[in-house]
Amino acid sequence: MCGRYTQTAKLQDLMDRFGLDEPDFELAPRYNLAPSQDAPVVGVNPNTPDTRTLRLMHWGLVPYRAKDAAKPIINARAETLAQRPAFRWLLPRRRCLVPADGFYEWRKEGRIRTPMRFTLRSGEPFAFAGLWDRWLRPDGNSLYSFTIVTTSPNSVLEPVHNRMPVILRPEDEAKWLDPANANPDALAALLKPYPAELMDGYCVSRAVNSPVNDSPECIAPEEAPLTLVPRSNLQADP
């Protein structure tokens, strides 16, 4: 799964990277984005499909048919998007990019949980594949929310977790956003593990354990990187 991530790039850098119109809000660096918080999301303008927009959305999808917002969905499995009722209507219609420059997972060794941050080796921003929806609040106001799509892990993530967020290859981002691309098989082909040789992971401070902490301390290396080995090679706890 993906339960925390970072988005520290400056607004102008995101505008250049994703070809965005300038939004009408300020964008602060986020070092510990958590579910239930608002985060920037890239979509297409329905009136001008060639134009990409940036807007803030609630992380934790609330489907438009939901009776309430009590059970938001922070992640969606790539393998079942076309089958699950909450996603199968969104897949051909409401796809988005979720800008990020890193994400966290926790390595479990016995009773010890060590937070780790995973980034591209280039250090550049990237995009998670996402789905979004609009839910009408009881007061009549709209809640725009999103979920991050996950897939099986690559060899960098596999020792730490059995899922990873879908990081779209730059050349696939336009295909994911394209409103004319509604073929489930063509979309599924984009939702693959990101190449392991292009990623790095390192240990960070346990300050990231609390979503209250949102400062550069969260992404600072804490110690020498762990030696990652496949889960199948790990011995069971005594």
Short description:
By secondary structure, the chain is mainly beta. It has four helices and twelve strands, in the order βαββββαββββββααβ.
Major sheet: size, sense and barrel closure?
A: 7 strands, mixed
Mean pLDDT: 91
* Percentage of β-strand residues: 25-35%
Helicity range of the residues? 10-25%
The unreliable regions are 224-238
- What Rg do the Cα atoms give? 18 Å
- Supply the number of helical segments: 4
**Strands, total number:** 12
End-to-end separation in angstroms reads 27 Å
What structural class should be given to the helix and strand makeup?
Answer: mainly beta
**What spatial form do the alpha-carbon principal axes imply?**
globular
Please give the oligomerization state of what you see.
Answer: single chain
SSE ordering = EHEEEEHEEEEEEHHE
List the helices and strands and how they pair.
Blueprint: E1 5-7, H1 11-18, E2 30-33, E3 38-45, E4 48-59, E5 75-77, H2 85-88, E6 95-100, E7 102-109, E8 112-120, E9 126-136, E10 142-151, E11 164-165, H3 170-177, H4 184-188, E12 199-203
Parallel strand pairs: 4-10, 5-10
Antiparallel strand pairs: 1-2, 1-7, 3-4, 6-9, 7-8, 8-12, 9-10, 10-11
